[in-house]
Amino acid sequence: MGAQSRRFRGAAKTARRADTTIPKPFARVRRTVRSRTPAPRVPAFRAGRGHGMVLAPFSSSRPVRSRAMLHSLIAAWRRLRRPGNRGYALAALATLMLGVASVVTVYALLHRVLLEPLPVADEATLMAISGRNDARGVTGFAVSEPDFGSWRASARSFESMAAYKRRGVSVRGSDGADRLDALLVTPQLAAVLGVAPLLGRGLLDDEGDRSSALLIAASVWRDRYAGDPSVLGRSLVIEGRERTIVGVMPDDVGVATDAGLWLPLEFTPREQENRGDRRLDVVARLAPGVSRAQAQAEMDAISAELARQYPKSNTDWAATVAPLREQLVGADERTRLWMLLGAVGLLLLVTCSNLAGLQIARAADRQHELGVRQALGAGRARLRLDVVAETALLVAAGAALALPLAAALLRLATQTLQASQPRLATLAIDLRVAATAIAVCAVTALAFAAIPAAIAARAAPTAALNRARNALGRRSAPLRAGLVVAQFAIATVLLSGALALGGRLWTLAHAELGYATERLLTVRISLPRLDSPEVFEAQRRALSTLADEARTIPGVRSATIVSEAPLGEVDTQSEVAPGPMPAEVSPPERRVQASWRIVDAQYFETFGVPLLAGRAFARDDEPTDHIILGRSVAERVFGSVDVVGRIVTMGNGQRREVVGVAADTYQRNVAAGASPTVYMPITWYLWETMTLAVRSEADPATVVAAIRERAARVMPDRPLYDVRTMDEAVALSTAGPRLQAVVVALFALAAALIAAVGIGAITAYLIARRTGELALRFALGASPLRVRLRVLGGAGALAVAGVAIGALSLVVFERLGLQRDAGAEHLPAAFAISVAILLTTCLAACWWPARRAARIDPALALRGE
Q1: Is 39 a residue whose pLDDT tops 60?
Q2: pLDDT given for residue 507 in this prediction
Q3: SS3 for 523?
Q4: SS3 category, 666
Q5: Among candidates 319, 297, 454, which has minimal Cα distance to 384?
Q6: What is the largest distance, in Å, between two alpha-carbon atoms of the chain?
Q7: What is the arithmetic mean of pLDDT over 734-756?
Q8: How far is CA 544 from CA 482, 549, 604, 708, in A?
Q9: Which residue in 561, 587, 790 sits closest to 681, CA to CA?
Q10: 302, HSE (Cβ side, Cα atoms, 13 Å)
Q11: Is pLDDT at 24 greater than 50 in this prediction?
Q12: What mean pLDDT do residues 721-737 have?
């Protein structure tokens, strides 16, 4: 109570002092109001003080504060609707809508990919174990079945361990063969992940090799069986073998979101013995009390022991223990998403600083009104509340307008990225995610609003009532200038980064891939298990027949069979060293890790890959120990491309004779550049999935139906899938960098426009406030050109200062390595172009205010003053 009384006496003293400093008519009005108001109790006085006059006492101050906020919101709505303020309101809404929509979109992507918990139990203890070969620079590699068995038998840091791999399988139905993606799993996978069947049961521990049990995903259950609970016990013919449905699994189980079937993982005798045949993904759950570092140390010891026991296959190979999410989301994708979040954060700062700059200008323009309100008793808290209420109203309206735009941007982003991140396929605007992003925007905007709110509260009653209209404007000028400079600095960073990314994308789009992509169609075919020489030979002949049939289609120039087309999903690698000595005795500089492909005789003709030496493979009788090297492989291993007849040793110990050298090609993805590649004949080996490639005379889409018809006749149980042109494959390979460049470019353009609008609006405001000064200059002989140049020079100086700070920021980013993957080689040219764009935009935005300043009529302006 004592503190409240002291505040009351202080407020009364302030009021008496105000009476002696304001003109007498206003003082009489205030004394009259005070004399007719009942003497307040202290809490009521404190509550009423924010309303600008003393109110009758209330039992509680909380309703009064709520009413004050409501009144401030209503007053802000009325002010924004005034004709003179509509332009400001529309500009603020447009910038806020763009900023909030960008934040919501990028945060939704980031949340789904990196932050949202995976649909597994206790994600923190779920690890992915992958192969690593530091000598070859290989990380995140698959695991062989024998190594997996050794890990599971020896490791004590894990309470459970399971393996799986993905494969397309043929499903025979009444209407023909269909293809579904399947997970081939060890029976323990569901238990390791901590996921349970929605219906029925999972695979039992004894349901391994040769089991007929089958699990279907919920999507297959809904689409094929309409969610019928009696689906258990029904049969499906998969790869020519009848299997019984024993359970229904969720669609998203962390390691897969689009697998329609779960099948027991079966190993051929060759796979059970070959430690170099690495095809499995492994997940494991840490034992209680065991850390990731402890598990990694144990796996290092086990890997060292395996390398000692099996030097031929396990030398230099080790295991990496990492959280499952790190395996599901690659480092490039994580970096790309964090870069987008940083870009959208900068855009949000530009948006909020622009809004704050406009509000500072408005506060200076309203100083007469604010001074009158203070003279009538309005407290500084109430004046601050008015600015905060106006900001809150704009943020709420901008967020409401931003949600539809964010939904559209999110659809565009998911369509581009879902090929590499299947979990994005079901992504939509989530209310919790949207609320979080909007809350961040609101807090940021309100934090910036504290600056104009503080300026508004500093309006002096005496200066305002004596019409000293420039006092507050002069005090807030450094803040306005600082905000404009900050906007141009951020816009410089964003625009330079966007142009550098665009330069990198242009380089990728015009890269020499080593093959011709025009009118080239690729079609994938899943093969059955090649568990006998007879099955292998039958499938090889069927593929050769299919290629021959494709060549008879009108409009087809050539056709070939290859294990995986360039820029495909699968990239299998092997070490290549000079023979005939074992690979491990060759010096490291003579060994190379190369992608390997299985091809037939027409591959190089169909893809247009030039042969630099030697010949292509023969049609049907090529010896299985022949090989064709890519140019970089030949130069690394032998130092020359003239190597026909030489012997190379593969990583698995096989020795092969070189019969040709081909030009280097892009095999993995466009961003990775040309890949060291070797080619083996189709007479030696087949993958589980092979590819038919067809080059046509016209649009490849015109031959798809004919290819399907011939495939149905030659291989009736093997459905075709993933039909696309090589141009589409190139576009898909560059989808991530392209999306990143486009989004950052949009953010950069938005930041540049917002900065230009901000400096243009503030320049127009300053011209309006300095009308009398400019009129006096004209009266004293100043020319319109000089005034126009003075206005443009002031705005240009702020823009140049911002660009200079942005340049320093770019230098710091480059020194820290933050521009390493963002087109750093294009950054100098990108910065020069961005400077030209920003300065031109600034001058264009300020040209109209400068033109108005040059057309001021001195007589009319001075008469108004």
Answers
A1: no
A2: 84
A3: strand
A4: coil
A5: 454
A6: 114
A7: 79
A8: 71, 9, 16, 15
A9: 561
A10: 22
A11: no
A12: 87
Give the model's pLDDT for residue 849: 81
Mean pLDDT computed over 539-563: 94
**Contact, 433 vs 454, CB < 8 A?**
no
* Token code pair at residue 175: 């209407």
Say how far apart CA 718 and CA 728 lie, in whole Å: 24
Amino acid in position 293? A
Distance, CA of 632 to CA of 599 (rounded, Å): 19
Strands (E), 555-702: 556-562, 573-578, 592-599, 611-614, 626-630, 647-650, 655-662, 677-681, 689-696
Q: Is omega for the bond preceding 580 within 30 degrees of 0, making it cis? A: yes
Answer whether 667's CB lies under 8 Å from 609's CB: no
pLDDT-derived band at 53 (thresholds 50, 70, 90) equals: very low
Buried residues in 677-690 as b, exposed as e (16+ CB within 10 A) = bbbbbbbbebbbbb
Helix and strand element counts for the chain (H, E): 28, 23
Q: Which amino acid is at 360?
A: I
Amino acid (1-letter code) at residue 412 = L
* CA–CA dist 493, 513 (Å, integer): 32
Please list, residue by residue across 800-825, b when 16 or more beta carbons sit within 10 angstroms of its beta carbon and e when fewer do: bbbbebbbeebeebeeeebbebbbbe
Report the relative pairing of strands 520-526 and 573-578 from DSSP bridges: unpaired
For CA atoms 104, 109, 111, 112, the dihedral sign is positive
Report how far residue 636's alpha carbon sits from residue 826's, in angstroms, rounded to the nearest whole number: 30
Closest C-alpha among 634, 633, 619, 727 to residue 681: 619
Residue 218, number of CB atoms within 10 A of its CB: 17
Question: Helices 331-365 and 380-417 sit at what angle, rounded to 10 degrees?
Answer: 150
Distance from C-alpha of 170 to C-alpha of 469, rounded to nearest angstrom? 82
Of 589, 599, 438, 639, nearest to 515 by C-alpha is: 599
Pair of tokens at residue 390: 């106006």
CA distance 799 to 481: 10
Q: What is the mean pLDDT of residues 327-352?
A: 81
Residue type, 124: A
- What is the rounded CA–CA span in Å between residue 762 and residue 849? 9
Three-state DSSP at 285 gives strand
> Distance (Å, rounded) from C-alpha 454 to C-alpha 445?
15
| Residue linked to tokens 């169909």 | 606
Neighbour tally for 295: CB within 10 Å: 22
Average pLDDT over residues 133-144: 84
Measured between alpha carbons, how far is 263 from 185 in angstroms, rounded to an integer? Answer: 6
The residue whose two tokens read 């203890």 is 125
What DSSP state is assigned to residue 514? S
Taking only the tens place, the pLDDT of each residue in 464-497 is 555 544 544 555 677 777 888 888 888 888 888 8
- For residue 7, with 0-12 CB atoms within 10 Å meaning exposed, 13-18 middle and 19 or more buried, which class applies? middle
C-alpha distances in Å from residue 732, one per residue of 425, 493, 695, 722 = 16, 28, 20, 13
In terms of DSSP bridges, do strands 241-249 and 213-217 run parallel, antiparallel, or are they unpaired?
parallel
Phi, psi for residue 608 in degrees, rounded to 5: 70, 30
What is the chain's mean pLDDT, rounded? Answer: 81
| Contact by Cβ (8 Å): 503, 240 | no
State the Cα–Cα distance between residues 522 and 704, nearest whole angstrom.
10
d(C-alpha 471, C-alpha 364), whole Å: 8
Rounded to whole angstroms, the Cα distance separating 754 from 799 reads: 13
Tokens of 640: 């020359």
Range list of H helices, 22-85: 24-35, 42-49, 62-81
Q: Residues 808-814: what's their mean pLDDT?
A: 81
Is residue 285 over pLDDT 90? yes
d(CA 698, CA 555): 7
Q: How far is CA 296 from CA 146, 291, 327, in A?
A: 19, 9, 15
What does the pLDDT read at residue 41? 44
